TrEMBL record:
GO terms for molecular function: oxidoreductase activity, acting on NAD(P)H, oxygen as acceptor; oxidoreductase activity, acting on the CH-OH group of donors, NAD or NADP as acceptor. Belongs to the short-chain dehydrogenases/reductases (SDR) family. PROSITE patterns: ADH_SHORT. It comes from the Eukaryota. This is Uncharacterized protein. Keywords: NADP, Oxidoreductase. Pfam families: adh_short (PF00106). The keyword Oxidoreductase applies. It comes from Wallemia ichthyophaga.
Length: 228
């Protein structure tokens, strides 16, 4: 049985990653600032829910300690939030255990990391920094696979917010693009992209996966076809 920590697990991609992991008989420790009814509804002996901000070192430490105390190991950390400082903090806390398990750090990145989207300066920079962290960790931690993965334009609450209020601060053509993706049914289903992260989390590290470490990949790219 694999053991993973998932941050930002209360809704959207993080919630679906958690759901997919549990469906594959994995143990999961989640961190989220709020606990949604959907997350609470995933009741399982293999699920531990920690409410708090991952920026709080004590919360991140509690998640790592819970995984080790209850399951004796940690195989994967899935970082589904966009602020770099806590990303690095929980990675540092988890790394000693990931070295032992030859585990993985999976970062939910974004096309914004390279797209330089107007009006999204802080978000763009945060995701770009996340990609750089994945590359740095891959160089420093040869026994741990670190990947930054673009999930696509996913049908989540973030997209709802963009359609509802994005027109006030986004360039018209950019806002129209997201509205059209929704109206044309082209948004990625959260469960589809989540399945890739979950399958990576539970898979054994092989030579092909090790060779991908440090890269920025797309969930639907050729490199990850075996995990879809």
């Amino acid at each position: 049985m694999s053991v993973s920590i998932v941050t930002g697990a209360s809704r959207g991609i993080g919630l679906e990653i958690t759901r997919s992991l549990l469906a594959n008989n994995s143990a999961v420790v989640t961190i989220s600032r709020s606990v949604s009814d959907e997350l609470r509804g995933l009741q399982s002996l293999q699920l531990d829910i920690i409410q708090g901000d991952v920026a709080d070192r004590d919360i991140s430490k509690l998640a790592v300690d819970t995984a080790i105390a209850k399951h004796g190991k940690l195989d994967c950390v899935i970082l589904n939030h966009g602020i770099l400082s806590p990303v690095g903090r929980i990675a540092d806390l988890a790394l000693p255990h990931l070295r032992d398990s030859r585990g993985k750090i999976l970062m939910v990145s974004s096309g914004a990391a390279t797209g330089a989207y107007a009006a999204w300066g802080a978000y763009n920079a945060s995701k770009a920094a996340m990609n750089t962290l994945a590359k740095t960790l891959a160089g420093e931690e040869k026994g741990v696979v670190s990947l930054a993965i673009r999930p696509g334009v996913v049908d989540t609450g973030m997209q709802e917010d963009i359609r509802r209020v994005g027109k006030t601060h986004m360039p018209p053509e950019m806002h129209s693009k997201f509205v059209e993706l929704h109206s044309q049914g082209k948004l990625v289903k959260p469960q589809d992209t989540a399945r890739v992260y979950a399958n990576l989390a539970i898979s054994s590290v092989n030579e092909n996966l090790s060779n991908l470490s440090g890269q920025f990949l797309s969930w639907d790219g050729e490199e990850l076809k075996d995990y879809r």
